[in-house]
Amino acid sequence: MTVEEPRQIDFAAFEPPSGDMCLIICDHLDWKENEGEHLLLLQEKINVYFSFIESGEIYEKLPKAIGRKIVIEVMGKFPLSEGARKFYRFAGKVIEDAGFSLVFKHSPT
Predict the structure, then answer these.
(1) With 0-12 CB in 10 A as exposed, 13-18 as middle and 19+ as buried, what is 36?
(2) Can you give the pLDDT at residue 74?
(3) pTM value?
(4) For the residues 26-33, what does the mean pLDDT come to?
């Protein structure tokens, strides 16, 4: 599963040291190729994750997430473009205001 499959939750995992519940998005797309479409795909995927959390469905599907900090974590194969950095700042603020977190991790492998 990847950013190109917007209706799917790619992975969910507990982060051992913190106990946070991480919902992971796998983003293998290069920002140099059609940045606009890439941003739309990512926005749609993050919105699905956000709805999954906000609706409470996360607690039905993953009851161990109850009482834990929820983090949407994007694992990107390519470093962020300037446009992507702006997007993450904006989206991160919206998600943070709702009580959750959005993080990007560059993972080239």
Answers:
(1) exposed
(2) 97
(3) 0.93
(4) 94
